[in-house]
Specification:
Blueprint (H helix, E strand, L loop, with lengths): L1 H8 L13 H5 L6 H33 L17 H22 L1 H19 L7 H16 L10 H26 L3 H4 L8 H24 L1 H7 L8 H17 L6 H7 L1 H18 L1
């Protein structure tokens, strides 16, 4: 059915990434305000729509390369279930709906969502071909989600939250590139041009640097006196083992199980990784809420 292909094109399985928008609600202790909660949920839904629009736009342009890819050839446009023109029409409709919902959440949210659309459109057209900058653009997309759920709805963004967020997304971005090189081997550059400009050695170093920085930043945040004062507990260090477990398990999946290409799919496939994320969330909520 074509309807299923339309839905698949928006990649709803990937919408879990938009949970980043809700981080400010939790760490800003703003879940008790109905207006702020409604704005955060609307901003999250807006990002689901606009991220789906970006996926559809990307697939409409990359269909020829996707048909040669062992995994991407099953996407709706690549397999012929939808035409590139139909994908672009859906992208425009989803982007418009997402912007409208963002305006309902607030004009700052709308500006952030518009910036996300512009940035990711530029990524799809040319920025994804520039080594290192391509990963930073992906990380910037996640940071815009964090800002929409903080600055956009009137919650002051924590510098610690932003630092940990950018290091986490850089870690995942470089891991994705490393997994693609391992998966595609000599054909990597033909499937994604930027992969021809990377080496496995460089990516391993970038992954290690970002992982170490992320863990160090989160550790400093968890043990800081300011953290205890803001959240009313000095026990947030109890969440650090979950962060270590998740990071090391992801590295294990990357190096020994052929994983790391898609963080969301890794969560779905690996029970230990899923438990580490759920354990972290549950512990944070238990301590803070």
């Amino acid at each position: 059915m074509k309807l299923l292909a339309w839905i698949e094109l928006l990649r709803p399985r990937q919408w879990v990434k938009n949970g980043f928008v809700l981080a400010g609600l939790v760490f800003g202790h703003a879940w008790g305000d109905p207006q702020t909660l409604a704005a955060a949920l609307a901003a999250t839904a807006a990002f689901c729509l606009v991220s789906g629009a970006v996926y559809a736009f990307n697939d409409s342009r990359d269909a020829p390369q996707d048909r040669e890819h062992p995994d991407k050839r099953d996407r709706p446009v690549a397999r012929g279930a939808l035409s590139p023109r139909e994908a672009q029409a859906l992208a425009a409709a989803a982007a418009a709906a997402g912007l409208a919902l963002a305006f309902w959440a607030g004009w700052k949210v709308a500006l952030i969502v518009a910036a996300y659309l512009g940035l990711l459109a530029a990524y799809t057209v040319f920025l994804k071909r520039v080594a290192v900058l391509d990963v930073f653009v992906i990380a910037a997309g996640f940071m815009l989600r964090l800002l929409a759920g903080t600055l956009g709805i009137g919650i002051a963004p924590s510098s610690w939250l932003l630092a940990c967020g950018v290091l986490l997304t850089l870690f995942l971005g470089f891991a994705k590139r490393r997994a693609e090189i391992a998966r595609l081997a000599a054909d990597a550059g033909g499937h994604r041009a930027v992969l021809a400009t990377y080496s496995a050695g460089f990516l391993d170093k970038a992954i290690a640097l970002c992982a170490a920085g992320m863990i160090a930043s989160y550790g400093l945040y968890a043990f800081a006196e300011e953290t205890a004062r803001v959240h009313g507990t000095g026990q947030l260090a109890l969440t650090l083992p979950w962060v270590l477990l998740g990071t090391l398990r992801y590295l294990y999946r990357l190096r020994f199980r052929g994983g790391g290409g898609d963080p969301v799919e890794e969560l779905y496939r690996d029970p230990v990784l899923g438990i580490s994320v759920l354990g972290w969330i549950a512990t944070v909520l238990w301590l803070i809420a």
